[in-house]
């Protein structure tokens, strides 16, 4: 009886969905931690692209497995499934005549094509397959738009910060030129200033954390103690 329940289509969908949810939650926690570790905008953009690619591959795998289940379990209101369709270019050969590796790669290619709005020769032939195709295409459109928006925001922020650094460097250089600073010493100051400006973007000052103002005073004091505790404890004069 347990084997029958396990092999029922709905239970297969349920288990696949549960496994995918667990994996998705774990990935969110992993990449959230990584995003805190990366401070530079370039690293953040690279992390965003990498995480989006990995998430797309994982989602494509899950959707491909669902599409495989639809064809394997013969869930159809038309009497046909995609596995019974002829393979383009191979005459009368149908998909179900090939091994599982080929079928899995076919489903994976189909899911990637739907998510990325690409073309594929595999056609849905019943309502269940059509519904999955529609949902996958809509999700791919939303995910693609979100990725483009994220990268655009990161690139704009990078451009703004770079423009601010150039402006400050230009003002500093003009100040030294107007006050007769020698060229050799000016180059030394400019190199040090450029390095300091780049490092400044990676450091979060206390005044920049506006969320601290929303915390209770007692919690702010406790947080301040946790931040400066190691300095106080390492001071032998206290």
TrEMBL record:
Molecular function per GO: intracellularly cyclic nucleotide-activated monoatomic cation channel activity; protein-containing complex binding
UniProt entry tagged with the keyword Transmembrane helix: yes
Parts of the chain that traverse the membrane: 12-32, 44-70, 131-156
Gene3D superfamilies documented for this protein: 1.10.287.70
Keyword annotations of the record: Membrane, Transmembrane, Transmembrane helix
PANTHER family on file: CYCLIC NUCLEOTIDE-GATED CATION CHANNEL SUBUNIT A (PTHR45638:SF11)
Protein name as annotated: Ion transport domain-containing protein
């Amino acid at each position: 009886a347990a084997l029958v329940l396990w092999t029922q289509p709905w239970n297969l969908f349920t288990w696949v969905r549960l496994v995918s949810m667990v994996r998705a939650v774990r990935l969110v926690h992993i990449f959230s931690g990584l995003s805190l570790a990366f401070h530079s905008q370039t690293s953040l953009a690279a992390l965003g692209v990498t995480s989006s690619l990995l998430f797309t591959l994982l989602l494509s795998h899950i959707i491909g497995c669902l599409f495989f289940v639809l064809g394997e379990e013969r869930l159809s209101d038309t009497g046909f499934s995609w596995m019974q369709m002829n393979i383009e270019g191979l005459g009368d050969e149908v998909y179900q005549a090939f091994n599982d590796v080929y079928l899995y790669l076919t489903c994976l290619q189909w899911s990637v094509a739907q998510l990325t709005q690409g073309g594929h020769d595999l056609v849905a032939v019943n309502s269940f397959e059509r519904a999955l195709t529609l949902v996958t295409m809509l999700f791919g459109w939303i995910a693609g738009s979100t990725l483009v928006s994220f990268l655009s925001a990161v690139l704009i922020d990078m451009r703004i910060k770079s423009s601010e650094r150039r402006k400050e460097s230009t003002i500093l250089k003009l100040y030294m030129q107007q006050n007769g600073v020698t060229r050799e010493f000016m180059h030394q100051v400019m190199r040090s200033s450029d390095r300091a400006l780049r490092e400044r973007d990676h450091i979060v000052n206390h005044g920049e954390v506006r969320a601290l103002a929303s915390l209770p005073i007692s919690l702010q004091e406790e947080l301040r103690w946790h931040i400066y505790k190691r300095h106080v404890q390492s001071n032998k004069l206290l």
